Amino acid sequence: MRFVVVTGMSGGGKSTTLKMLEDMGFYCVDNMPVSLLEKFAELITQPGGELTKVALGLDVRSGQSFMDLPRVIERLKEMNINADILYLDASEKTLIKRYKETRRMHPLSPEGRVEDGVKKEIKMLEKIKSQATYVIDTTNLLTRELKAQLDEIFVKDKAYNNLMVSIMSFGFKHGIPVDADLVFDVRFLPNPFYIDELKTKTGLDKEVRDYVMQFQEAGEFVDKIVDLLTFLIPNYIKEGKYSLVVAVGCTGGKHRSVTLAQQLYDRLEAQGGCGLKLYHRDVAVAGK
């Protein structure tokens, strides 16, 4: 039996995840009291049972009993029930934004500031997060991208490392991304902006990509960065890092950075071993 406990930060995407798992054939129960988890597990694992895939949504709405979850998970292991923990996370800024957009109250701060509830929950869940089988950071994930990750884990049964690598193109004139872990400057390459027929196009267009990649330095840059990331990623995974943002910048963020970010994404995707996301921050920004 596949037994999954879906937990994590309030606003991290647990409800959406449970709906997706239900579509994947899981029997889903949301907001079950932690005190009932052992009894429920005993019932569904009895011989002759019809359920083969179960997902339970558990979070701080359970009150103080929620903090017993690590102990209960250990009890399940003693009962030969292997329960995976899927932890949904997001940045503090993103969680606050989501709560304010929906005008909901945070369960740990029903009459106070959302920020206070988020900070308190982060502290409360440190131990549970450290014990999670899978950690998915939904900060920059689209719904379809979350579904793709869940599909990789629970349908295709592929090996999954808890590291999401975001490859981002940007323009220095619009500012360096504040969440970037690694920043690479590709302004050493000739700028397609000064080629009349390429000026209004972007690195999403074949003509621009062909122009940028015709230079030997562009290919060497990709080779060297892929080599660096190939070394770094396994070490980040080993140290428990969950998110890595690699930012590639040119002047306006439309031509060179877009082309090379795409090249990096394609090469890393072919290698596998981590979650990947590609984001072109400034392609739609007006001006150079």
Description:
- The protein is of the alpha/beta class.
- It contains ten helices and nine strands.
- The strands form two sheets. The chain has a five-stranded parallel β-sheet, sandwiched between helices. Strands 7-8-6-9 form a four-stranded parallel β-sheet, covered by helices on one side.
- Helix 1 crosses helix 7 and helix 4 packs across helix 5.
- The longest helix has 23 residues.
- The radius of gyration is 22 Å and the shape is elongated.
- 34% of the residues are buried.
- The mean pLDDT is 89.
Name its key features.
288 residues, alpha/beta, five-stranded parallel beta sheet, four-stranded parallel beta sheet, 9 strands, 40% helix
SSE order and pairing:
Layout: E1 2-8, H1 14-23, E2 27-30, H2 37-44, E3 53-57, H3 69-78, E4 83-89, H4 92-102, H5 114-124, H6 126-130, E5 134-137, H7 143-154, E6 164-171, E7 182-185, H8 206-213, H9 216-238, E8 243-250, H10 256-271, E9 275-280
Parallel strand pairs: 1-3, 1-4, 2-3, 4-5, 6-8, 6-9, 7-8
